[in-house]
């Protein structure tokens, strides 16, 4: 009898533990736990669960107070942030203004970052500590976007981070946050395990343990959900979307995405490059992508409607800009360049390439939905106008370092403007790369045009919302005309989870345990 009772108790304990655990399938790897090293979607999603920010954003990209319980603009160039009291780090030490000051100094200065966070702090002239729970931030010029910018900068603890390197975060030694979960382990390329922070200052999380598994293969991700190995997956393969919608054991959630997909030419070279040649294989004497006619011709050769219908299977929209409809800065007057093969051939001939040329289009094959399939489809379209295109598809882990070294003549890219405002993409991707000014931190193709730099500067310092949105719309119109990057589609974010859960879909595509609750 005792053995039966013991067995029953073990079963009940196991069921209780399972009920308090959550397993999530990510579609891409978390490359580091260091919240300031690589501004990458999976890293940022993981970081939200371990670290907090002064200001956070909800699923609709709307800011709300977090570690700063409130904030206000004292003048056009001075902001005051009152910090939340009673917050402790995962090791029990108190959170204070000194940690914020340390964070602001460390975030822009992480060595060898492949795309960091300094741009979000570019407007700050100095930070003044009023007391342990009050800071004042002085900006170089009026900067209404400061709260939105700070929502991208995770606050770290000086007492563990001083002198720490990125590897110290990956081992867990420096991964001490104030967030709702603590890091239990990080296995590069495999998974991250989290445990609930029982001393969290906010709402208590229902999950005692959270496992984040990296399931890069689309079929494996779907199979893991169907078998019950994971509770929720992100980035549903478009070929599986209809089937999962019909499954009575599953629920599909979706949201318009702030992530746009584009093609980015290399601007770092003016002379020849071996990845762009004539039809005999001889490098061209000059980089053709500096000629707007070439970019427009390539854009006109792309049938975006076909990309949405045949490649994305409806899980995207055609676009010529970088935010979804209704977002702050979206320009309703701007539409994609019309599909016109003959017009594209005429433009190529006008630019001096009546016979076309050859190029290599680089793409990851495991990072964004249908990334390599989109690249293959575009390559076929370009080949029809005489631009014979070879696709070089590779794992994202190999793609990133080559991208950082400007080794791609043309590449598929994607960017999620997590701020939900038009400035983010301009700052990170389009503006001139400048380590001193902290602009263009993710501008890996080294595009530079003073007109966009001026629009970013003007819009970012415009306090009036209506006037600022007009600047972003002006920037969108110029972008669509010049096409420094060639926009393809705007994603629609999708997730699927087992019944018995409730999930909040996010425009920024981040998958976080805080967005998953047991269904009532």
Automatic annotation (TrEMBL):
The keyword Lyase is annotated on this UniProt entry: no
Domain of life: Bacteria
Gene3D superfamilies registered for this protein in UniProt: Dipeptide-binding Protein, Domain 1, Dipeptide-binding Protein, Domain 3, Periplasmic binding protein-like II
Keywords: Signal, Transport
Predominant location category: periplasm
Database matches in Pfam families: SBP_bac_5
Signal peptide: 1-19
Domain Solute-binding protein family: 63-434
Locations listed in the record: Periplasm
Family membership noted in the UniProt record: Belongs to the bacterial solute-binding protein 5 family.
Record's protein name: ABC transporter substrate-binding protein
